[in-house]
Every structure is written in structure tokens, then in C-alpha cells.
């Protein structure tokens, strides 16, 4: 493991958030992956390695790659789902962190191919509104990233059909928060569907929450939006 202090800071941040993924049950064993753009070099990204359990992951397991996917530093192979991360960074310079989870309620919604409508305040403040499911594509292919581009437009998260969650943010904390909120909202939605139709928040109120609580984090490019927690 080599490189400047900014690389080490990114590596340590990914190890910390990896442990959080496990503690919150947003992934199982080695599933899912995380990345963060290097603070002083926007062409570089730190990303979690392939097939590594989060509870034993160390900073020197984290790989530094270019946004074109080439490995710059690290002894490990990057996650097999690398294009999901690098293509987002390459296409969107406003994205500073990407979190991909296999969380249970979200996977159930993704398997159904439905979205989560704007039924909860926290979903709107964390993700910018209700979210949709991107069409099915095989994991690790550029196609996955292509299909998520539209689903992530104007939102901090989407579901990947028959797969999991993809969350983005101006920083890693925002992206993580979005992935975490999606799991909670998916769980609530599945429960509420027993009493369908599930009432949605009025469009003008959705717009107000987006404007006041979701959009500022993107324009500041820092921190996660607060949602009463
Ligand atoms: Zn995955």
C-alpha cells in the first residue's frame, strides 16, 4: 500500500463504512461494494476489493483505480462490479461516493421489478423522491451502469432488477445514508402493501422536501441530508 495521505483517508473511510454495512445488515458476507472519489484527485477512486468479508477488511485491501477502471495501487483485485462504480464517476463529476448493497427488503422489491413510491418523508430527503428499478443486466458489465444512468437521474438511489441497491452521493456518507434509507423504505413499503393502495405524499410536499432537504447536500457537495435521525 502506497500513496499520499488522501489515499489512506479514503481507504480508512471505506473500511469504516464496510463495517457499518454489515452492522446494519445491508449486505451478506462479501456481497455489495463501496467506493469514494479521492479528495485531491478526481480521476482516482478508492474501491473495496473482490470477495473480501467486511469484518476483516483492512485499509491495505482497498484498491485505488482510475475512473477508466485501471488499477493504480493495491495488491488486491477490485470488486467484480467495478464498472458499476467507475462508469458513474466517469459520467458524473458531481458524484463523490457510491454504495452498492444487497439488502433484503430492497432485494425483494427489486425482484418484483417495482419501485418505491414517495410514501415516506425520509425517502424523499435522502433520495430526492420515490425511486425506480433499473432494467435487468448481468453484474459486472458496463450494461448495468448504462441502465442505471436514467434511473439515477435526479435521485440518490435506484434499485437494480433482480439484484440490489445502487446509491450515489456528493460524498460517501450521503450515498451510504441513501442506501440505508432505501432498505428501511422498502421494508415499510412491503408491509404497507398489505393494506394497498399505499397513500403517497402530495406532489407539492414532495417538491418542498426535495428542495429544502435533499438538493442542498448536492449543491454543498458535503454531508448526508438530515431526516430526523
Ligand atoms: Zn451486487
Query: What shape does the CA trace take?
Result: globular
Pick out the low-confidence regions: 222-229
| Average pLDDT | 93
Give the CA-CA distance, first to last residue: 37 Å
Strand order within the widest beta sheet: 4-3-2-1-5-8-7-6
Helix content: 40-55%
CATH topology: L-fuculose-1-phosphate Aldolase
CATH architecture: 3-Layer(aba) Sandwich
Q: What string, H for helix and E for strand, traces the elements in order? A: HEEEEHEHHEHEEHH
**Number of structurally distinct domains:** 1
Describe the structure in your own words.
There is one protein chain. The protein is an alpha+beta fold. The protein has one domain (5-220): L-fuculose-1-phosphate Aldolase, CATH 3.40.225. Helix content is 41%, strand content 14%. The chain contains seven helices and eight strands, in the order αββββαβααβαββαα. It has helices at residues 5-23, 82-91, 104-112, 121-127, 142-151, 172-192, 203-220, and strands at 33-37, 44-47, 63-66, 71-73, 97-101, 133-134, 157-160, 164-169. Strands 4-3-2-1-5-8-7-6 form an eight-stranded mixed sheet, sandwiched between helices. Helix 1 packs parallel to helix 6, helix 2 packs across helix 5 and helix 4 runs antiparallel to helix 6. Residues 81, 100, 102, 139, 163-164 line the site of zinc ion.
Amino acid at each position: 500500500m502506497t500513496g499520499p495521505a488522501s489515499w489512506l483517508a479514503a481507504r480508512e473511510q471505506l473500511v469504516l463504512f464496510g463495517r457499518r454495512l454489515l452492522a446494519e445488515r445491508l449486505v451478506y458476507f462479501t456481497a455489495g461494494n463501496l467506493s469514494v472519489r479521492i479528495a485531491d484527485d478526481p480521476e482516482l477512486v478508492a474501491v473495496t476489493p473482490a470477495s473480501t468479508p467486511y469484518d476483516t477488511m483492512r485499509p491495505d485491501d482497498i484498491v485505488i483505480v482510475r475512473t477508466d477502471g485501471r488499477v493504480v495501487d493495491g495488491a488486491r483485485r477490485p470488486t467484480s462490479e467495478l464498472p458499476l462504480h467507475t462508469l458513474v464517476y466517469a459520467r458524473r463529476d458531481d458524484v463523490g461516493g457510491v454504495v452498492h448493497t444487497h439488502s433484503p427488503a430492497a432485494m425483494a422489491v427489486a425482484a418484483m421489478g417495482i419501485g418505491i413510491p414517495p410514501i415516506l418523508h425520509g425517502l424523499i430527503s435522502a433520495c430526492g423522491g420515490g425511486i425506480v428499478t433499473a432494467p435487468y443486466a448481468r453484474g459486472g458489465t458496463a450494461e448495468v451502469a448504462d441502465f442505471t444512468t436514467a434511473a439515477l437521474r435526479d435521485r440518490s438511489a435506484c434499485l437494480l432488477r433482480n439484484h440490489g441497491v445502487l446509491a450515489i452521493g456528493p460524498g460517501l456518507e450521503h450515498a451510504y445514508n441513501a442506501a440505508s434509507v432505501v432498505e428501511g423504505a422498502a421494508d415499510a413499503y412491503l408491509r404497507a402493501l398489505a393494506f394497498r393502495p399505499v397513500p403517497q405524499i402530495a406532489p407539492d410536499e414532495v417538491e418542498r422536501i426535495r428542495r429544502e432537504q435533499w438538493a442542498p447536500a448536492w449543491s454543498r457537495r458535503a454531508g448526508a441530508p438530515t431526516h430526523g435521525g
